[in-house]
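Now produce a polypeptide, keeping tokens residue-aligned:
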Amino acid sequence: MTLSSLDRASERKTLPVSAPPPVSTIAKIQQGDSLAAFLKRHGVTQAQLKTFNPGVQLNALTVGRELQIANASSGQSVLAVRPLRSGGAAWPQQAPLSTADQPDSLKPPIVGYQWPTKGVFTSGYGWRWGRMHKGIDIANNTGTPVIAARDGIVSFSGWSGAYGYLVEIAHSDGESTRYAHNSRLLVKKGQVVPRGARISLMGSTGRSTGPHLHFEIRRAGGAALNPLVKLPARKA
């Protein structure tokens, strides 16, 4: 074996790769975030987010709110590298996560809309009494819970003329939903709401002939579309 000369000035006495910066355990709700988008971006599930933030109400999150997204630790864990016979290296084998423990980014996303309340379908989308009815009506008793048909951010919550007490939710693809004639509002503008969260109680405020929910879906440009195109088929 031949040994060539060695320049001691070139000797490295430090690690060839600097340590990565510590991972932040705090994240902030950004403008335009939905709950699903926030969870996917940070690789956590709703259950984990609740564990890291005891007492947090997922249907009461607002833009700018800071949340713990990982367990805080006083030290750092080191992932060992396993040498191969060829002289290379490989990451240690890890058991795959069960579906329940996988982050939301690895799970099939929940897509589409769900029905925003329970009751009797009383009026559809289209021309009615000489004017365009831009949504559907579902009747029930005053105080019946109204839920978000899809996750998003509350863009309006308050009184709006013929709509009465109105909630409007903006969704990540630019579409929006409107929930009108409520007796009580349970959310505020800027609040992040997951699909299925209670947002109001049914009523008969504004231009209304009785307690019901008037529900609309609006395209990204603001034009109304028939909600039945987006909603799942109702069971008889």
